[in-house]
Amino acid sequence: MSPPSSTTLRFQGRIAVVAGASRGLGAAVAKRLAEQGAHVVLVARTQGALEALDDAIRKSGGEKPVLAPFDLTDFARVDLLGQALHQRFGKLDILFSAAAMLGTLSPLGHIEPELWGKVIATNLTAQWRLIRSLDPLLRLSDAGRAVFVTSAEGRDATAYWGGYAVAKSGLETLVRVYAAEVAHTKVRVNLVDPGPFRSRLRAQAFPGENPGALPDPASLCDPILDLLDAASAKHGQLVTGG
Q1: How many C-beta atoms surround the C-beta of residue 75 within 10 A?
Q2: Which CATH number is 216's domain given?
Q3: Cα separation of 177 and 191, whole Å?
Q4: How far apart are CA 123 and CA 100, in angstroms?
């Protein structure tokens, strides 16, 4: 497929990091960004899934992405990501993080400490490490944009959602603090709660649910792309869907 006309490329030349890019919403947003001219850095644990997304992006005419196959809880690698981006691009325009881990649905007292630690590390601490590593680069952009995916479970204190709910609640506070800290810069930071959609995490939480009855991640991208656009003035907000 031929790439879209340059006059239609909304993200032409923008440098974007997408965390949790191997599947689901992360993959869908990464593909759309690349198709619209962004140079996308794909971060996720699964090499094979990233390679499949690379193929899909190039077949659709999108910009060839950079693959960064590592676990976000490898915090030294997160730090190296910022250093590598600075050396290669000198800035970062977009950060989108959809990385998440469910853990287990059970009473709090039944959760194994090791699993609790992994859930908090993935859903909360890794997001702080991304901010820590990439904020200096976002500040070097003429219009840095950061969007983090959250969930109603974090606000509703849903029983049995354990570490996932606690981490998402913490994530929302983290992102609002970050937004307050960059309020007088050109960086704009927001949260998005897309509501229920077809994903591996959703299937783990609701194994009896018919995935065909849920929205496809590709159908949820437009509000997210709006937040990532350099023209967006929204800041410190929670954008909900579903």
Answers
A1: 17
A2: 3.40.50.720
A3: 12
A4: 5
On whether residue 38 sits in a domain, the answer given is yes
Domain count of the fold of the chain: 1
Q: Is 164 a catalytic residue?
A: yes
Q: Residue 242: pLDDT band by 50, 70, 90 thresholds?
A: low
Residue 133 lies in a domain: yes
User: Residue 1 domain-assigned?
Assistant: no
Catalytic residue chosen out of the listed positions 164, 168, 201, 227: 164
pLDDT digits (tens, 9 = 90+) for 66-107: 999 999 999 999 999 999 999 999 999 999 999 999 999 999
Distance CA 219, CA 216 (A): 6
The answer to whether the CB of 189 falls within 8 A of the CB of 235 is yes
Q: How far apart are CA 26 and CA 10, in angstroms?
A: 18
Q: What is the side-by-side order of every strand in the sheet holding 238-240? A: 66-69, 39-44, 15-19, 94-97, 145-149, 188-193, 238-240
Structural domain range at position 187 = 6-240
Q: Dihedral of the CA atoms 49, 54, 60, 63 (nearest 10)?
A: 150
